[in-house]
Here is the input.
Amino acid sequence: MSTEHETRLELEIAHVLLIDVVGYSKLLVNEQIEVLQLMNQIVRTTPQFRAAESKGKLIRLPTGDGMALLFFDSVETPVECALEISRAATQKHAPGLRMGVHSGPIKEVQDVNDRANYAGAGINMAQRVLDCGDAGHILLSARVADDLSSYRHWHPHLQDLGECEVKHGLKLHLFNLCKDGAGNPIPPEKVRRQQSRWAAGWHARTAVAAPGGRKRIGALLLSTLVVTGLSVGLWAILRTPASPREKSLAVLPFANLNEEKSDASFVDGVQEDILIDLSKVADLKVISRTSVMQYKPGVPRNLREIGRALGVSYLLEGNVQRSGTRVRVHAQLIDARTDMHLWANRYDRELADVFAIQSQIAAEIVAQLQATLSPSEKAAIEDRPTADMAAYDLYVRGKAAIDSANYRANQKEFLLEAVTLLTQATARDPAFFLAFYELANAHDLLFLDFDRSPARLAAATSAIQTLQRLQPGAGETHLALARHLYWGYLEYEHARTELHLAQNALPNNPVPPLLTGYIDRRQGNWDGALRNLLRALELDPRNSFYLKQIALAYFSLRRFPEMGAALDRAISVTPQDLDLRMQRMAVDLEWRADTKPLHDAIESVIQTDPAAAASFAYRWFYLSLCERDVERAARALDRLGADGCYSEGAPFPRAWCEGLVARIKGDEGSARNLFTRAASEAEKAVIDQPQYAGAICAAAVIQAFLGNKDAAIRGGRQAVELVPMSKDAVDGPLLAGYLAMIYAWTGEEDLAIEQLRLVTSVPSYVSYGYLRLHPLWDALRGDPRFEEIVASLAPK
Here is the structure.
């Protein structure tokens, strides 16, 4: 035998990074070639690859649908390389990459062509680690995680997944790596499935064997929750506000002592300005306005209960009276733990001095609570927003209109009114910084929900440019820009930077952590999203909107018990919100495909107050379709407004919903006529908003139902390309789900199944109940592959 390729039998320890493409075999041949070329390009450009190759300390091995990289200098090198690959793959939309890292022995061998190759336990174990992952995961063996634990900076980024059984019954202890948006924060499906089976089996075996009783079962249930990862979020939602900090405060609404009730907005403005001044003091915890405005004056206040509900030690209350050119303000500070009055003062001055009164009250509260006040905080408290009281009146009325838009059905009208009032305020005082801030907010809210025109976006941009000119370093300037970048341009990283600056300047404002949570959610960092949403809730503990957002995050994660707990707490805050109550009743529909709780709740309201059904008409319509109840679906449609039947992620015209009812009824002629009318309206929406993926998607779905295959698939793919899952982890899966629906209704069942598998493998609103019950998925019913997907989402 020639000695030229003699095998080296000595073992070496290599740090192995394995990479492959999830779903590679299902790609077309040209797609396989393209994805491998893209993967090679990404890998070759990483600093770790280039450095190791230049030193001769890198071995590259092709593996068919991926590659193995063998590093020899440091265990950190393959891990850092994996993070670089993950970031680049996200930016370049490389589909389905997953990675596994392990350190172990390898040896050089000869392949069938007498060429050098490598084998050994190091590579074999890395393959087992990789096989446990889903798309986007960077999984590490326990050995690699132990080595990394020597370095403190890795600790926050390692998620212990426990053991996972792999080939030949071997159990691997795995860790999930996520850092700065790289990696997949959701535990792999294989790990979750095994742990759920283990937990359920262990629970059943122990419950049967134990001589115990209910205490034992309760302890086992808690253990099961811990194993399945539910307990942390569930208890965070259910817990009462934490024990109040010593320097924590809520500024309750002030009483209006004026004879003119029209002065109410002025009184609210005085109270809110004091709250805003105090909230800029980092040494204080100050509860946000939404939570405190629920404790209106005029009804008996149990101050101890309010303090406990808001999680604060102190409460500030007062009253305002305006008479001609004078204003009188009375304020008092109360220890909410003892009901003791600690401080009180009355101010009787000229109306033009109202800002000085607000600043003085804030300064005296800071002194009473012995809070540290920085020079910049002191200057912010003393700042006078405007010298024009008429402009100030317009400002507080405009801000009140924005607040009203959050809780009323005619939101658009309130926002347009706010724009008018705030435009008038800024015309009177072109240096009125806060008025420009609220004006930018109103324009962006209109763009977000009602008017996605370039003109609306430009109006918000103009207001923000004025903020940057007036006070470029103010927290409100950074916050307005962050909101604009996020809502208007989807520029997540720039928005995140601005939010960090806003949070530093506005330490008690819940919006920066809220928007950061939104960005985390869009980028697929669900753990970070929940942390930030809960932080916002801590600053605004009785904000039912925040609780709804937390519930929606749990919905996407298909963690329905926690979703229900969040909605229960939201209902305790706003029990009069009927749609919120129906949303809570719909949890069992999505989770278990059980329509009865929602059906009974809706029926109860309709029998006692039929007009109230308008507040939850779309939810009623959705239920009726799931139950195939044509008569009830038509009644629900009667309650819907003329604007249509907006579904998650896509603005469908009303005629679309009417067409669905006709199709379920079996009236194909009427259905086609209605879908044709809906298609015409949807195309107009696309012309008006050519970059709005939701509108493009809605138009494409309607074309699919009309049988226009090419136009439907073209539009569906265009929508997914505009907002891919790699760029948007919320709307991306929604649009991808609609593309699966388009494929199904145009006869492309294989593509539909492939697309649906992709959507159900990641967090999304595609649920067991939706797939099992909704007629939109009838085109796939009976296909065993579809039924397998549905069964995979069934409650365990």
